[in-house]
């Protein structure tokens, strides 16, 4: 069955190419997207960028022994940043597709069947994107925790900020998964249970890392 199509005009420009002012004005506007899902992905992108930045400040001569680990963290954080930006775009497209599916005709039995299938497919994608953001938040948080003991102490607070941003990404994604899964049959919605269960663990790990950074600052 055909899925609802989304024209290029319906999707905002890539979040990686617009100004912050434009993004915030669109976020504040009475338009379907961007919304909380894109915000969650951009939280993850910011978390990844902060980890990458701290790692790049940990490339001094005195950091030579840790350079292989630092270089790996830089590469991983840069990749997570790129994926998170792509997920922000994907969320906007997914949300637009859900709206388009609900607008499909339902005058005949065949149309009702096609519309139901399109709505379910769109909702699954709309839940898949924040579930992927949870994955990114999890990985970014792990990178931040690995970096903390060896990171340049002059920018240690940015590791804490990265943890907080990763936490926000996961918690906001939880809301977006839940709202989409609530409209799906259990057979489809149950596939997102694992992502939802991980959110509380991610939040606890982020809080612990924040606490470690705060302790380091106060010591």
From TrEMBL:
Query: Which SUPFAM superfamilies does its entry note?
Result: Methenyltetrahydrofolate cyclohydrolase-like (SSF101262)
Q: Where is the Cyclodeaminase/cyclohydrolase domain?
A: 19-184
Q: Which residues cross the membrane?
A: none
Which InterPro entries does this entry report, sorted A to Z? Cyclodeamin/CycHdrlase, Formintransfe-cycloase-like_sf
Which Gene3D superfamilies would you find in this protein's record?
Formiminotetrahydrofolate cyclodeaminase monomer, up-and-down helical bundle (1.20.120.680)
The entry's protein name is Cyclodeaminase/cyclohydrolase family protein
Q: Which organism is it from?
A: Nocardia halotolerans
Record lineage: Bacteria, Bacillati, Actinomycetota, Actinomycetes, Mycobacteriales
């Amino acid at each position: 069955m055909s899925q609802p199509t989304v024209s290029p005009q319906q999707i905002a420009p890539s979040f990686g190419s617009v100004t912050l002012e434009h993004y915030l004005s669109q976020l504040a506007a009475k338009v379907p997207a961007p919304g909380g899902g894109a915000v969650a992905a951009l939280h993850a992108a910011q978390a990844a960028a902060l980890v990458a930045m701290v790692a790049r400040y940990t490339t001094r001569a005195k950091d030579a022994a840790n350079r292989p680990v630092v270089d790996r963290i830089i590469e991983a954080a840069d990749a997570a940043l790129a994926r998170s930006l792509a997920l922000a775009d994907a969320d906007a497209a997914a949300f637009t597709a859900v709206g388009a599916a609900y607008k499909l005709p339902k005058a005949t039995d065949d149309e009702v069947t096609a519309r139901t299938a399109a709505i379910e497919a769109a909702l699954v994608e709309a839940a898949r994107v924040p579930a992927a953001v949870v994955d990114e938040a999890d990985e970014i948080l792990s990178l931040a925790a690995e970096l903390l003991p060896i990171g340049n102490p002059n920018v240690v607070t940015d590791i804490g900020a990265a943890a907080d941003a990763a936490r926000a990404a996961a918690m906001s994604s939880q809301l977006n998964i839940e709202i989409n899964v609530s409209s799906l049959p259990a057979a489809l919605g149950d596939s997102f249970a694992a992502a939802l269960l991980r959110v509380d663990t991610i939040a606890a790990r982020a809080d612990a890392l924040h606490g470690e950074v705060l302790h380091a600052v106060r010591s």
